[in-house]
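Task card 7
Instruction: Convert sequence to C-alpha coordinates.
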Amino acid sequence: MSGRANRVWTGGSAILARVGDPRPVGVFDSGVGGLTVLHELRRQLPGERLLYLADLEWFPYGPRPLRDVRHRALDIITHFAELDTKLVVIACNSATAAALNTARERFDIPIVGVIAPGAQAAVEATGNGRIAVISTEATLHSGEYVHAIKEANPGCAVLGRAAPELVSIVEAGDADTIRADGALAPLLDELFAWGADTLVLGCTHYPLLLPSLLRLIGGRSMAVVDSAATTAARVQRIVAVNRLQRDGEDVPPQLAVTAAPRRFLDSARRIFGEELAAPEVVRIGDCGLLAVAP
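Output:
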Protein backbone atom coordinates (compact mmCIF):
# COMPACT_ATOMS: atom_id res chain seq x y z
CA MET A 1 0.00 0.00 0.00
CA SER A 2 1.21 3.47 -0.81
CA GLY A 3 2.70 5.46 2.05
CA ARG A 4 0.83 8.57 0.96
CA ALA A 5 -2.04 9.27 3.32
CA ASN A 6 -4.42 10.28 0.54
CA ARG A 7 -4.21 7.06 -1.44
CA VAL A 8 -5.64 3.58 -0.86
CA TRP A 9 -4.97 0.15 -2.32
CA THR A 10 -8.04 -1.47 -3.87
CA GLY A 11 -6.65 -4.72 -5.21
CA GLY A 12 -5.33 -3.40 -8.48
CA SER A 13 -4.31 0.22 -8.29
CA ALA A 14 -4.12 3.19 -5.95
CA ILE A 15 -6.97 5.69 -6.07
CA LEU A 16 -7.83 8.81 -4.17
CA ALA A 17 -9.64 8.05 -0.92
CA ARG A 18 -13.04 9.54 -0.28
CA VAL A 19 -13.92 11.12 3.06
CA GLY A 20 -17.39 10.11 4.16
CA ASP A 21 -17.76 7.64 1.27
CA PRO A 22 -21.50 7.16 0.62
CA ARG A 23 -21.12 4.31 -1.86
CA PRO A 24 -22.73 0.99 -0.91
CA VAL A 25 -21.20 -2.37 -0.02
CA GLY A 26 -22.41 -5.24 -2.22
CA VAL A 27 -23.03 -8.68 -0.65
CA PHE A 28 -24.17 -11.87 -2.40
CA ASP A 29 -24.90 -15.54 -1.86
CA SER A 30 -27.04 -18.21 -3.53
CA GLY A 31 -29.75 -17.99 -0.85
CA VAL A 32 -30.50 -16.84 2.68
CA GLY A 33 -27.22 -18.10 4.15
CA GLY A 34 -25.37 -14.92 3.28
CA LEU A 35 -27.86 -13.02 5.42
CA THR A 36 -25.77 -14.18 8.39
CA VAL A 37 -22.93 -12.08 6.96
CA LEU A 38 -25.31 -9.21 6.19
CA HIS A 39 -26.56 -9.31 9.79
CA GLU A 40 -23.00 -9.08 11.12
CA LEU A 41 -22.13 -6.29 8.70
CA ARG A 42 -25.11 -4.29 9.95
CA ARG A 43 -23.99 -4.89 13.54
CA GLN A 44 -20.30 -4.12 13.06
CA LEU A 45 -20.61 -1.36 10.45
CA PRO A 46 -23.71 0.63 11.39
CA GLY A 47 -24.51 3.36 8.93
CA GLU A 48 -23.11 1.62 5.85
CA ARG A 49 -25.39 1.17 2.84
CA LEU A 50 -25.68 -2.55 2.10
CA LEU A 51 -26.94 -4.21 -1.09
CA TYR A 52 -27.74 -7.93 -0.76
CA LEU A 53 -28.36 -10.29 -3.67
CA ALA A 54 -29.69 -13.83 -3.22
CA ASP A 55 -29.08 -15.79 -6.42
CA LEU A 56 -31.96 -18.22 -5.90
CA GLU A 57 -32.14 -18.97 -9.62
CA TRP A 58 -28.87 -20.85 -9.15
CA PHE A 59 -29.41 -22.07 -5.59
CA PRO A 60 -27.50 -23.97 -4.30
CA TYR A 61 -23.98 -23.22 -5.53
CA GLY A 62 -22.41 -26.12 -3.62
CA PRO A 63 -23.14 -29.02 -6.01
CA ARG A 64 -22.28 -27.02 -9.17
CA PRO A 65 -18.91 -27.18 -10.96
CA LEU A 66 -16.52 -24.51 -9.71
CA ARG A 67 -16.08 -23.05 -13.21
CA ASP A 68 -19.84 -22.42 -13.48
CA VAL A 69 -20.00 -20.81 -10.05
CA ARG A 70 -16.99 -18.66 -11.00
CA HIS A 71 -18.73 -17.37 -14.15
CA ARG A 72 -21.90 -16.61 -12.21
CA ALA A 73 -20.04 -14.83 -9.41
CA LEU A 74 -18.07 -12.69 -11.85
CA ASP A 75 -21.32 -11.59 -13.53
CA ILE A 76 -22.72 -10.53 -10.16
CA ILE A 77 -19.57 -8.65 -9.21
CA THR A 78 -19.66 -6.93 -12.61
CA HIS A 79 -23.08 -5.57 -11.76
CA PHE A 80 -21.97 -4.41 -8.32
CA ALA A 81 -19.01 -2.65 -9.93
CA GLU A 82 -21.34 -0.91 -12.37
CA LEU A 83 -23.38 0.29 -9.38
CA ASP A 84 -20.15 1.88 -8.03
CA THR A 85 -20.02 -0.24 -4.90
CA LYS A 86 -16.93 0.52 -2.83
CA LEU A 87 -16.45 -3.09 -1.70
CA VAL A 88 -17.94 -6.50 -2.51
CA VAL A 89 -18.41 -9.36 -0.06
CA ILE A 90 -18.71 -12.87 -1.49
CA ALA A 91 -20.90 -14.18 1.34
CA CYS A 92 -20.65 -17.78 0.21
CA ASN A 93 -17.82 -20.25 0.75
CA SER A 94 -18.41 -22.08 -2.55
CA ALA A 95 -18.35 -18.84 -4.55
CA THR A 96 -15.32 -17.62 -2.60
CA ALA A 97 -13.45 -20.82 -3.47
CA ALA A 98 -14.48 -20.58 -7.11
CA ALA A 99 -14.10 -16.89 -7.88
CA LEU A 100 -12.22 -14.80 -5.31
CA ASN A 101 -8.75 -14.94 -6.84
CA THR A 102 -10.01 -14.33 -10.38
CA ALA A 103 -12.27 -11.50 -9.22
CA ARG A 104 -9.41 -9.73 -7.47
CA GLU A 105 -7.39 -9.85 -10.68
CA ARG A 106 -10.27 -8.56 -12.78
CA PHE A 107 -11.88 -5.85 -10.65
CA ASP A 108 -10.36 -2.69 -9.20
CA ILE A 109 -12.41 -2.68 -6.00
CA PRO A 110 -11.79 -4.49 -2.70
CA ILE A 111 -13.36 -7.96 -2.73
CA VAL A 112 -13.63 -9.98 0.48
CA GLY A 113 -14.39 -13.69 0.73
CA VAL A 114 -15.39 -15.75 3.73
CA ILE A 115 -12.66 -18.40 3.73
CA ALA A 116 -9.50 -16.54 4.82
CA PRO A 117 -11.14 -14.77 7.80
CA GLY A 118 -12.54 -18.06 9.08
CA ALA A 119 -9.24 -19.87 8.58
CA GLN A 120 -7.30 -17.21 10.49
CA ALA A 121 -9.80 -17.27 13.35
CA ALA A 122 -9.58 -21.07 13.54
CA VAL A 123 -5.78 -21.00 13.77
CA GLU A 124 -6.03 -18.48 16.60
CA ALA A 125 -8.69 -20.54 18.40
CA THR A 126 -7.18 -24.04 18.28
CA GLY A 127 -5.25 -25.41 21.21
CA ASN A 128 -4.10 -28.74 19.77
CA GLY A 129 -3.74 -27.77 16.10
CA ARG A 130 -6.52 -30.08 14.88
CA ILE A 131 -9.14 -28.10 12.95
CA ALA A 132 -12.28 -29.54 11.35
CA VAL A 133 -14.17 -27.81 8.54
CA ILE A 134 -17.73 -28.65 7.49
CA SER A 135 -18.81 -27.25 4.12
CA THR A 136 -20.50 -27.94 0.80
CA GLU A 137 -18.96 -30.32 -1.73
CA ALA A 138 -17.66 -27.48 -3.89
CA THR A 139 -15.82 -25.84 -1.01
CA LEU A 140 -14.39 -29.15 0.20
CA HIS A 141 -13.17 -30.20 -3.26
CA SER A 142 -11.56 -26.80 -3.88
CA GLY A 143 -9.13 -27.36 -0.99
CA GLU A 144 -9.24 -23.63 -0.21
CA TYR A 145 -9.77 -24.06 3.53
CA VAL A 146 -6.82 -26.42 3.82
CA HIS A 147 -4.64 -23.96 1.90
CA ALA A 148 -5.82 -20.96 3.97
CA ILE A 149 -5.36 -22.73 7.31
CA LYS A 150 -1.94 -24.09 6.32
CA GLU A 151 -0.93 -20.62 5.11
CA ALA A 152 -1.85 -19.18 8.52
CA ASN A 153 -0.12 -22.03 10.40
CA PRO A 154 1.53 -24.91 8.49
CA GLY A 155 1.60 -26.95 11.69
CA CYS A 156 -2.17 -27.36 11.86
CA ALA A 157 -3.93 -30.54 10.74
CA VAL A 158 -7.21 -30.10 8.86
CA LEU A 159 -10.13 -32.51 8.48
CA GLY A 160 -12.76 -31.48 5.92
CA ARG A 161 -16.22 -32.94 5.63
CA ALA A 162 -19.03 -32.06 3.22
CA ALA A 163 -22.46 -31.65 4.77
CA PRO A 164 -24.67 -30.39 1.91
CA GLU A 165 -27.91 -31.53 3.55
CA LEU A 166 -27.44 -28.85 6.21
CA VAL A 167 -28.12 -26.12 3.64
CA SER A 168 -31.53 -27.58 2.84
CA ILE A 169 -32.28 -27.92 6.55
CA VAL A 170 -31.54 -24.24 7.13
CA GLU A 171 -33.45 -23.07 4.05
CA ALA A 172 -36.47 -25.07 5.26
CA GLY A 173 -36.40 -23.29 8.62
CA ASP A 174 -35.37 -26.43 10.52
CA ALA A 175 -32.03 -25.17 11.87
CA ASP A 176 -32.96 -25.67 15.55
CA THR A 177 -34.94 -28.91 15.33
CA ILE A 178 -34.64 -32.65 15.74
CA ARG A 179 -33.96 -32.84 12.01
CA ALA A 180 -30.84 -30.68 12.41
CA ASP A 181 -29.73 -32.64 15.47
CA GLY A 182 -30.02 -35.89 13.54
CA ALA A 183 -27.81 -34.60 10.72
CA LEU A 184 -25.21 -33.02 13.01
CA ALA A 185 -24.81 -35.70 15.71
CA PRO A 186 -22.91 -38.35 13.69
CA LEU A 187 -20.80 -35.66 12.06
CA LEU A 188 -19.73 -34.23 15.42
CA ASP A 189 -19.00 -37.72 16.76
CA GLU A 190 -16.58 -38.27 13.87
CA LEU A 191 -14.87 -34.92 14.42
CA PHE A 192 -14.43 -35.53 18.14
CA ALA A 193 -13.10 -39.05 17.46
CA TRP A 194 -10.47 -37.48 15.17
CA GLY A 195 -9.48 -35.11 17.97
CA ALA A 196 -10.70 -31.76 16.61
CA ASP A 197 -10.86 -28.97 19.16
CA THR A 198 -11.97 -26.33 16.64
CA LEU A 199 -14.80 -26.44 14.11
CA VAL A 200 -15.06 -24.02 11.18
CA LEU A 201 -18.55 -23.48 9.81
CA GLY A 202 -17.49 -23.45 6.16
CA CYS A 203 -20.85 -22.36 4.74
CA THR A 204 -22.66 -19.14 5.55
CA HIS A 205 -25.87 -21.11 6.18
CA TYR A 206 -24.26 -23.03 9.02
CA PRO A 207 -24.11 -20.29 11.71
CA LEU A 208 -27.89 -20.61 11.85
CA LEU A 209 -27.29 -24.14 13.21
CA LEU A 210 -25.43 -22.84 16.27
CA PRO A 211 -28.19 -23.62 18.81
CA SER A 212 -28.28 -27.23 17.65
CA LEU A 213 -24.48 -27.45 17.46
CA LEU A 214 -23.94 -26.09 20.95
CA ARG A 215 -26.61 -28.38 22.36
CA LEU A 216 -24.92 -31.44 20.81
CA ILE A 217 -21.39 -30.37 21.79
CA GLY A 218 -22.58 -30.09 25.38
CA GLY A 219 -19.74 -30.27 27.90
CA ARG A 220 -17.16 -31.38 25.35
CA SER A 221 -14.43 -28.92 24.39
CA MET A 222 -14.75 -27.47 20.90
CA ALA A 223 -14.42 -23.90 19.63
CA VAL A 224 -16.87 -23.05 16.85
CA VAL A 225 -15.74 -20.46 14.29
CA ASP A 226 -18.52 -18.44 12.67
CA SER A 227 -17.37 -17.22 9.25
CA ALA A 228 -20.05 -14.50 9.25
CA ALA A 229 -18.63 -12.69 12.28
CA THR A 230 -15.02 -13.02 11.17
CA THR A 231 -15.79 -11.82 7.64
CA ALA A 232 -17.64 -8.75 8.91
CA ALA A 233 -14.67 -7.94 11.15
CA ARG A 234 -12.36 -8.18 8.10
CA VAL A 235 -14.61 -5.81 6.14
CA GLN A 236 -14.67 -3.39 9.06
CA ARG A 237 -10.86 -3.25 9.09
CA ILE A 238 -10.63 -2.74 5.32
CA VAL A 239 -13.19 0.06 5.39
CA ALA A 240 -11.39 1.77 8.28
CA VAL A 241 -7.86 1.42 6.87
CA ASN A 242 -8.94 2.73 3.48
CA ARG A 243 -11.10 5.50 4.99
CA LEU A 244 -14.19 4.31 3.17
CA GLN A 245 -16.66 4.85 6.02
CA ARG A 246 -20.02 6.36 5.24
CA ASP A 247 -21.07 9.33 7.34
CA GLY A 248 -24.76 8.96 8.10
CA GLU A 249 -27.48 7.19 10.02
CA ASP A 250 -28.25 3.49 9.76
CA VAL A 251 -30.35 2.60 6.71
CA PRO A 252 -32.13 -0.70 5.93
CA PRO A 253 -30.32 -2.97 3.48
CA GLN A 254 -31.55 -3.15 -0.11
CA LEU A 255 -32.50 -6.71 -1.04
CA ALA A 256 -32.63 -8.40 -4.44
CA VAL A 257 -33.19 -11.94 -5.69
CA THR A 258 -32.87 -13.65 -9.05
CA ALA A 259 -35.93 -15.86 -8.40
CA ALA A 260 -38.53 -16.82 -5.78
CA PRO A 261 -38.91 -13.50 -3.93
CA ARG A 262 -41.73 -14.77 -1.70
CA ARG A 263 -39.76 -17.85 -0.66
CA PHE A 264 -36.74 -15.70 0.12
CA LEU A 265 -38.75 -13.23 2.18
CA ASP A 266 -40.56 -15.94 4.12
CA SER A 267 -37.28 -17.72 4.93
CA ALA A 268 -35.47 -14.52 5.83
CA ARG A 269 -38.22 -13.30 8.13
CA ARG A 270 -38.57 -16.70 9.80
CA ILE A 271 -34.84 -17.08 10.36
CA PHE A 272 -34.08 -13.56 11.54
CA GLY A 273 -37.34 -12.72 13.23
CA GLU A 274 -37.65 -9.25 11.76
CA GLU A 275 -39.61 -7.54 9.04
CA LEU A 276 -37.69 -7.03 5.81
CA ALA A 277 -38.60 -5.05 2.73
CA ALA A 278 -39.74 -6.99 -0.32
CA PRO A 279 -36.74 -7.77 -2.55
CA GLU A 280 -36.32 -6.52 -6.09
CA VAL A 281 -36.25 -9.28 -8.71
CA VAL A 282 -33.26 -9.15 -11.04
CA ARG A 283 -31.89 -11.21 -13.91
CA ILE A 284 -28.28 -12.17 -14.45
CA GLY A 285 -26.83 -12.20 -17.95
CA ASP A 286 -23.40 -12.07 -19.49
CA CYS A 287 -23.45 -8.30 -19.08
CA GLY A 288 -24.46 -8.35 -15.43
CA LEU A 289 -27.81 -7.89 -13.69
CA LEU A 290 -30.84 -6.36 -15.33
CA ALA A 291 -33.85 -5.33 -13.27
CA VAL A 292 -37.15 -6.92 -14.23
CA ALA A 293 -40.65 -6.51 -12.89
CA PRO A 294 -41.31 -8.31 -9.55
